[in-house]
């Protein structure tokens, strides 16, 4: 039967390699590094398996928190880019929502100015996105 050191080495290497294929934002990498550290410590200091697992869990949590603190992956809150022009499919009454054609798809849309109505088949600019609703402004006001 393999020793706990060799098992921790295998687990550590597998977790580190998994980071290359799974986008886990360095979680599996830090867990793999923790397993490699436990493999080193199991030869010298950690004899009991429950103690090894406890140290691995604590190291994993600490390393994940450190990595999250120093290496923050910035996610864009909104993914609206290049094409910012859309066309209304329905009327957008003041303060209510309607439908626009944006990038070939029909989207729920609201006017950024809640007192303004937008007619159907009017060109609009997409200002931002709130969930699945596009916030738009009529092209006639922005030109």
What can you tell me about this protein's structure?
The protein has 143 residues and is an alpha+beta fold. It has two domains: 4-70, no CATH class; 85-142, Nucleic acid-binding proteins (OB fold (Dihydrolipoamide Acetyltransferase, E2P), Beta Barrel). The chain is built from four helices and five strands, in the order αααβββββα. A hairpin with an 8-residue loop joins strand 1 (85-88) and strand 2 (97-102). It is rod-shaped.
Task: List the main descriptive attributes of the protein structure presented here.
about 140 residues, about 45% helix, five-stranded mixed barrel, 4 helices
Mean pLDDT: 87
- Which stretches are poorly predicted, pLDDT < 50 over at least 5 residues? none
- The shape is rod-shaped
Strand segment count = 5
Report the major sheet.
5 strands, mixed, barrel
The percent range for helix content is 40-55%
- The H-and-E topology, N to C, reads as HHHEEEEEH
Distance between the termini: 76 Å
Q: Order of strands side by side in the largest beta sheet?
A: 1-2-3-5-4
Q: Which strand-content bin applies to the residues?
A: 15-25%
What is the count of DSSP helices, taking H or I runs of 4+ residues? 4
Structural class call reads: alpha+beta
The value of Rg in angstroms is 27 Å
Count of separate structural domains: 2
């Amino acid at each position: 039967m393999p020793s706990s050191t060799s098992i921790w080495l295998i687990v550590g290497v597998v977790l580190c390699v998994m980071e290359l294929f799974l986008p886990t934002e360095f979680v599996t990498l830090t867990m793999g590094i923790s397993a490699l550290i436990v493999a080193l410590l199991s030869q010298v200091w950690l004899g009991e398996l429950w103690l090894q697992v406890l140290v691995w869990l604590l190291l994993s949590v600490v390393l994940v928190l450190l990595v999250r603190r120093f290496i923050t992956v910035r996610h864009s809150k909104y993914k609206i880019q290049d094409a910012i022009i859309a066309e209304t499919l329905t009327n957008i009454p003041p303060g209510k929502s309607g439908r626009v054609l944006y990038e070939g798809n029909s989207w729920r849309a609201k006017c950024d100015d809640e007192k303004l109505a937008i007619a159907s088949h009017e060109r609009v600019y997409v200002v931002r996105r709130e969930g699945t609703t596009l916030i738009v402004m009529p092209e006639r006001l922005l030109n």
